[in-house]
Amino acid sequence: MSMPEKVRLVEVGPRDGLQNEAQPISVADKVQLVDDLTAAGLAYIEVGSFVSPKWVPQMAGSAEVFAGIHQRPGVTYAALAPNLRGFEDALAAGVKEVAVFAAASEAFSQRNINCSIAESLTRFEPIMAAARSHGVRVRGYVSCVLGCPYEGKVSAEQVAPVAKALHDMGCYEVSLGDTIGTGTAGDTRRLFEVVSAQVPRAQLAGHFHDTYGQALANVYASLLEGISVFDSSVAGLGGCPYAKGATGNIASEDVVYLLQGLGIETGIDLDRLIAAGQRISSVLGRANGSRVARARSAQ
Ligand code: HMG
Ligand code: MG
């Protein structure tokens, strides 16, 4: 199998990144981040979530963020929706693409969305129907594909039926999330080998967290498996409120650098991306989580 010639990055920093921040972040700072990412050439940005503010307080202002951003034609600005209520709120905020999220482990499903895997899939059916009638595309996530903070190791065989269910119900793409970042390159290759028997590789994406420092290796392993869509987070922002100890997503800057070195096209301006990451890192008052950004900024 040859490596893809083009890769699409799904920028999840404003959502997966910021959702985990305990300190308040203003709507203006979130809007600035999304606008900076647009300027850097990201074609897909996950802007926020329409979830319960009791569960994830940081995402409470997502409608205001959508109202404030400057949307560039051709760029997808998406939001997470866990149930029909979230979908309707997203629609009212003008969102044109949503993501639903299920888990490969029962314990994580309970802690993250307060229901079983099967119940979550049932909950998504009305979202899919409403999305179809409004012409909204739906992306699917499966969490804990290589490990669960409560159940430990998760097998590819547990992931495949959940990914298939999301695909069968109409998700145009299913992103496989190593939520706690314990997976290795070997695990990743096997995961895509097994899951691609149920969902075509062109409709699968990789979502890696860098907790164990394996995320970039896992992206490379995925490329070898013919996967061409990756979720990443500027400045390596992130974590998950229901996965204790999970650090940020893989940094977008580091993925772009890897891909440039492989001669794979992304359409992203690395310098502008680094500038976006530097700005949000200074807003948060912390070191930039991207190694590439740190190296370039030290020069
Ligand atoms: P629940 O408590 O079981 O639901 O939460 P409920 O229906 O009983 O509602 C409880 C309260 O929430 C009610 O309010 C509802 O109105 C309200 P009250 O009457 O108590 O005042 N509510 C809502 N409010 C706003 N928006 C909504 C909504 N729905 C209900 N959409 C629920 C169930 C799913 C809502 C909750 O568990 C939830 O919001 N969970 C979200 C968790 C989350 O966002 N996790 C992070 C994203 S997943 C992730 O990061 C992983 C990923 O990155 C991939 C990876 O890394 O693997 C995607
Ligand atoms: Mg995540």
UniProtKB/TrEMBL annotation:
Its EC number is 4.1.3.4. Pathway: Metabolic intermediate metabolism; (S)-3-hydroxy-3-methylglutaryl-CoA degradation; acetoacetate from (S)-3-hydroxy-3-methylglutaryl-CoA: step 1/1. It holds the Pfam family HMGL-like. One of its GO terms (biological process) is ketone body biosynthetic process. One of its GO terms (molecular function) is hydroxymethylglutaryl-CoA lyase activity. It comes from the Bacteria. Residues 7-274 form the Pyruvate carboxyltransferase domain. PANTHER family: HYDROXYMETHYLGLUTARYL-COA LYASE (PTHR42738). It is an enzyme of class 4 (lyase). InterPro entries: Aldolase_TIM (IPR013785), HMG_CoA_lyase_AS (IPR000138), HMGL (IPR043594), PYR_CT (IPR000891). The keyword Lyase applies. This is hydroxymethylglutaryl-CoA lyase. It catalyses: (3S)-3-hydroxy-3-methylglutaryl-CoA = acetoacetate + acetyl-CoA. Keywords: Lyase, Metal-binding. Belongs to the HMG-CoA lyase family. The keyword DNA-binding does not apply.
